[in-house]
Design a protein that fits this description.
The chain is an alpha+beta fold. The strands form 5 sheets. The chain has a 6-stranded mixed beta sheet with strand order 1-2-6-3-7-17, with helices on both faces. Strands 4-5-19-18 form a 4-stranded antiparallel beta sheet. A 4-stranded antiparallel beta sheet has the order 11-13-9-14, covered by helices on one side. The chain is elongated. Helix content is 33%, strand content 28%. It folds into 2 domains: 259 residues, Aminopeptidase, CATH 3.40.630; 120 residues, Alpha-Beta Plaits. The chain starts with a helix and ends with a helix. The protein has 10 helices and 19 strands.
């Protein structure tokens, strides 16, 4: 009951603080207040902790609990930011309905942050065979500037590179050993404006978009015909934004198309560049004296962890929970790029980014117990 009350108290306090990402919503204020709350928690436990200002009021909190082996470090991670609250009634107050805890960020992923805080409570008063790096980052929901800062500033300050990263995203208690990456693209077509009654005097920039859309559709179909990834299925793409023209009575002088490509481990940049080239060539071949400009505007890598002894140790500690792949992207990919094998593991729930977001209270407790077991028995397991 003490564990349950602490978990509920922590997630209640975390949800009560507005940590909406300000780059995604005008309702957001940044993560400084919630980072301070987490920082004070570790201070009270006597664990070395620090707030890092990443940018303005965008902050990370880190804490390091030195265990019996200071060179064996487990990295645990959660993000402090949430998406917006439009359409939600009282989003910063926990509402309990049976096993469900409703509120903004409960599922994605303040529950994981609360579990980290509970683990710190336990190991602050117990012998811990390994060292624990508790990390809470800003901006995961947008550009991951918090995780980028963590990789550049916090990780190099450790006595050794963490042997494993556990990112506590919601996974329904499955062990997420892989997740997709994504690339964003923009195609811009320039034509010539003219009065709608005299189209021959202009060059319509919108018409050629049909060739881009047809090509993207064809690429997407071919992706679905390839061998699927064992945990992630197929790579996909979809058009996300189309803009063009200034008025119905004016021949459009400019049009843009933005799309997203969800990538799989093993796909190469060369393959992705070739897809972009196909789109450009299709538009360039369209009738008309238009100009075509295209670029990759943003990219995040996929992640794939091997099913090695460390991951099997974690699986054993969870009662042999199954491996899984996640279609979403997570900060774990940046840790993996830094040479830290990383997995996703977190509680069950529903409604990430939705107005009916909730997390399972019993699943939070399970995740805490599984991770406590994994950490407590680490030396025994590897001996």
């Amino acid at each position: 009951m003490i564990l349950q009350s602490k978990l509920i108290q922590y997630i209640t306090d975390l949800v009560a603080i507005n940590s909406v990402n300000p780059d995604l919503s005008t309702e957001g204020q940044g993560e400084r207040e919630i980072a301070q709350y987490v920082h004070e928690h570790f201070q009270k436990l006597g664990i070395d902790t620090k707030i890092d200002t990443v940018q303005g009021d965008r902050c990370n909190t880190t804490a390091l609990l030195n265990g019996e082996d200071s060179n064996q470090i487990l990295l645990m991670n959660g993000h402090l930011d949430t998406v917006g609250i439009k359409g939600m009634d009282d989003p910063f107050t926990i509402r309990k309905d049976g096993d469900r805890l409703y509120g903004r960020g409960t599922y994605d992923m303040l529950a994981g942050c609360a579990v980290q805080m509970c683990l710190a409570n336990y190991f602050a008063d117990q012998s811990c065979p390994i060292s624990l790096a508790f990390t809470f980052v800003c901006d995961e929901e947008n550009k991951s500037i918090g995780m980028e800062h963590l990789v550049k500033s916090f990780l190099p300050s450790l006595s050794s590179k963490p042997f494993l990263g556990i990112f506590m995203e919601p996974t329904e208690e499955k062990i997420g050993i892989s997740h997709k990456g994504y690339n964003w693209y923009e195609l811009k077509i320039k034509g010539l404006a003219a009065h709608g009654s005299r189209p021959e005097q202009g060059v319509n920039a919108i018409f050629p978009l049909q060739y881009a859309l047809e090509t993207l559709d064809d690429i997407n179909k071919k992706l679905s015909e390839k061998e699927p990834h064992p945990y992630l299925g197929y790579a996909t793409l979809h058009p996300g934004l189309i803009n063009g023209g200034t008025a119905q009575s004016v021949i459009a002088a400019e049009a843009t198309l933005n799309w997203e490509r969800r990538t799989l481990p093993g796909e190469t940049q060369k393959e992705l560049d070739q897809e972009l080239k196909q789109v450009v060539e299709a538009v360039e071949s369209a009738t008309g004296d238009h100009q075509v400009f295209a670029k990759q505007v943003y990219s995040r890598p996929p992640n794939q962890s091997g099913e090695d002894s460390l991951i099997r140790m974690l699986q054993k500690a969870t009662g042999n929970k199954s491996y899984s792949g996640m279609s979403y992207w997570a900060d774990s990919a940046l840790a993996a790029q830094a040479g830290i094998p990383s997995v996703l593991f977190g509680p069950a729930g529903h409604g990430a980014h939705a107005i009916d977001e909730w997390v399972s209270e019993s699943s939070m407790i399970n995740c805490y117990k599984y991770l406590r077991n994994f950490i407590s028995n680490f030396q025994i397991t590897i001996s």
